[in-house]
Fold these 4 entries.
Entry 1:
Amino acid sequence: MKRISLDITKAACFLSEGAVKAYEPKVKEAQKALEEGTCPGNDFLGWLHLPSSITKEFLEEVQQTADILRKECEAIVVAGIGGSYLGARAVIEALGNSFGWLRQDKGNPVILFAGNNIGEDYLSELTEYLRDKRFGVINISKSGTTTETALTFRLLKKQCEEQRGKDEARRVIVAVTDARKGAARTCADKEGYKSFVIPDNVGGRFSVLTPVGLLPIACAGFDIVKLVEGAQEMERACAADVPFEENIAAQYAAVRNGLYAAGKKIEIMVNYQPKLHFISEWWKQLYGESEGKDLKGIFPASCDFTTDLHSMGQWIQEGERTIFETVISIEKPNRELLFPSDEENLDGLNFLAGKRVDEVNKMAELGTRLAHVDGGVPNIRIAVPELNEYYIGQLIYFFEIGCGISGNVLGVNPFNQPGVEAYKKNMFALLNKPGYEAESKAIQERLRIDN
């Protein structure tokens, strides 16, 4: 089997000669710290060798649970936020039919995502949609008290029990949560739900290859064995003993940090395949939450090309030169569609007749990369042989290990997220949550002064 590959030549040329190679000692030291557990956040390194630790028996257990849900449900709602849903959604949308969500596709249940916002219209429309459906719920939360997810699960639990009865609802509600503590664990044990454990040493944004991601992906009908095999292959390919010249994760970390030091503060993740939109969304959380701290970090942004060339293309081509692009390129599409000929040729496109649509797309990709490099935008290219479980598994682990190395080179703790708590404290205080009286009083005074 092939591997995904990395081309940094159109990025390294923006740095001084040998600049990327000069990062090799720092990168090796960073990866050594990961392996030896001496880096900041070393209590959250469970993802590092997770692929190779996954057993056949574990995957069979996940698949058996998924099969029950697939048999019993027309729709399955994945309730989770951040890393508790983005990875699963990224894989499902990358591998699925672009319009499969409009119907039950080939016997597969519709996979829906909720618990990732507090939109009243969204939740009301969701409950209305489910009113005549046999649906199940995968509730993903370590604590069970994350506001967005807990609020959504309370609504869905009540509706599922009312529509199916408590005994039947118990069969189609699954908890993915902490092993011992938290509201979600207490609820699962009390109600008798099937449950899976989120490992203590795996943070949410690194949890795709735990039941957090694997169960929803299996419910959608995709091969989690192949997904894990792809991740295992990339774990071997990016191991600490692999030479720098062959280790694509080490090279990615090196060139990113080199560009950052040279003033490139924004990384735009670009794809030319609409199905990769949520891969970019997952990547944004992975790198943004890992590196954005201590007043440091590359800002992760994303664009879907060629769509966003008609909205962001001007800024990318001629705006402030503080950006670089990382392009995910799918080498072989899964389908074939030829461009037709037209007798009148009013649009002047007959020169494309007989060509595959993907050939047009590939030339748009190449032309854009050339234009952006000429315009002063460094370009990194990640080539993925095709969209399937095996290569998506590779891509997931590549980005995870690249992130761990890069964050260590940057000099931050890539595995905590203290800044995420700031908005929660204010929200709880404004909602008069018990225990936040002092914060509430301080905010009310602040608002009075501001007004």
Entry 2:
Amino acid sequence: MKQNRFSKGIITLVFLLSLSFFSLFAPAAKAYANNTTGEPKLNVKSKAIVKGKDYALKVYNLSETQTVTFSSESPKIASVDEKGVVSALSIGTTVVTVTIEDSEGSEPVTLQCKVTVGPPAIFVMLSRQQAELVVGQRAVMYWLIAPLNTAELPKFSSSKPEVASVSAGGIVTAKSEGTAYIFAQIDNGHFSACRITVSAEGEVTEEEKIFKPDETTENKFADFLVDLNTKFTNGDNTSENTGADTAQ
């Protein structure tokens, strides 16, 4: 009988100690869990948007007690709704401010995103019409695009990804022996192509090969600029970009 009472006493003591342990360490565990989320942040700090298009801003690492409001410095250039969807309305630059308030009384936090609204692209040209690579080699594909203040980037694709693949930023990777065409296309349907010949044997280095514009490409693009200038503008409205600049 005494032994049973002793056993029950031990169990009760262990239970009480467990409750005390939990009450002491639960707040610390909760604080640790909250800290693991990190500080609130935006998915982008700057964004170029084509006029007439939308882009959704996202805020990460929010707690359950925090609320978010969005505002645009120049709503005529780019407006933003309560969900963070930015609408590009006219060409120019503005700043979207995100204000984060906490119902628990913490100081408000502000985040900003620089929004640049530009016109759509009307012409794109790859830096080369043909090029050679060795299996395992990578190359940066330059392109020329007009007008200068366009917010659009070309979309890349490969006719044979198993021979030569291409990333969203224009990085070409030679996969197997053969021939493939790399395409750069803009929203109005205009595109440019480069014929890639991949050989099985040759020197492969860790450094990426650079396909800068050759003389033929530059001359053709210059002719387009002259024609564009004659029809629409009074100056050079071109831009040179590389996949290395846009890959993030």
Entry 3:
Amino acid sequence: MVGAATACLLARQGLDVVVLESALPEPFSPEQPMDLRVSAISAASIKLLQKAGGWEAVLAMRSCPYRRLETWEWDGFTTRFDAAQLGLPELGHIVENRLIQLGLLAQMESLPSVRTITPTNVVALEQDQHYARLTLDDGSRLQARWVLACDGAESKTRQLAGIGVSRFEYRQHCMLINIDSDDEQQDITWQQFTPSGPRAFLPLAGRHGSLVWYDNPARIRELMALDHSSLEQAILRAFPARLGGFRVTGRGSFALVRRHANHYHAGRVVLLGDAAHTINPLAGQGVNLGFRDVACWSELLHGAGERWHELTLASRYERKRRPDNLLMQSGMDLFYAAFSNRLGPLPVLRNLGLTLADKAGPLKSLALRYALGV
């Protein structure tokens, strides 16, 4: 998603772009089941996708707008957010990652200055003051002013550039569960904190939804081993009654890991998105931070005019983006620590904090605007 958005924006700015991709996403068909991998796309990210030219294609496939967000631990101590408070039509959309990729891919194919090479992998990297040179797995070579590493958390490009990464593994895994709902879809996403981890609901298009279950690794392995019927019974015991009737249609899981690159660039290699940082998915900010990286980099190149290839731009990019990404990472870690700790009066204090946050007026709106990037 991040790499495709970058390609579209830079091509629209008049630059020639080559996209290297190991595999293209499967084409869309309306009867396909919902993908497990979905993202909560913020209002700011939607604007970026519109600018890149890929958002209309996403809407033509399927997405689900959400206008309200609620989070709580104890009943009666809830923080609520509403798009109407900010004068927005919605807080964002829940969209399958593949559909965002496909929407941007359609735009890439319409831009003559974008060339896609697939399937391929980068096997070697060399660079000097003026150019970076890549060797692909078929032996061919490419030369470019900039190499943008948008190849995910385990970025091979980052490794070839010699950029290290700090890493912290949380004591939780995350399980994603797709459901078909008995009820008409609502415009709300919610999350309840529990002693073993949060439980969240994300609305999907139609009568569909995505459940997010955080728990210790052993418990997640147990849940993954259940058949659909047994998993449904476990969900009924663990999730709030407001979930209503449903049927499980798919599941998957992954470990929660925070990563932050020691540097966002090495010479002419620049990291964007998960290649530079991953975050606890507690607030669904991962890909939105990646799109903020994209916006920053494209604005820097556009503002530089004929000096778009100067190495100093990479340093400016890191100075702009690292503090914002670090702030969001730290904020999510604070939430994780606060709600995974049962010591003393902490449960009472954090629930009072949720109530106070709900009544914080301008501060509450400011926090929401920051999270949405508006």
Entry 4:
Amino acid sequence: MKVYHGSDSLIRQINLTKSKSGKDFGRGFYVTKYRRQAEDMAKRVSDWQHTYI
């Protein structure tokens, strides 16, 4: 099964210590089977990071 992660960074290894609490299902590494959904999330993450850094 192919899954996608919505990020604007290259993920070489999953590190759950970098995950944030307060997510819908708690800490974790969230993926989706929908490429478009991951792409949209990556754009939102990138926009948010560039706005608040």
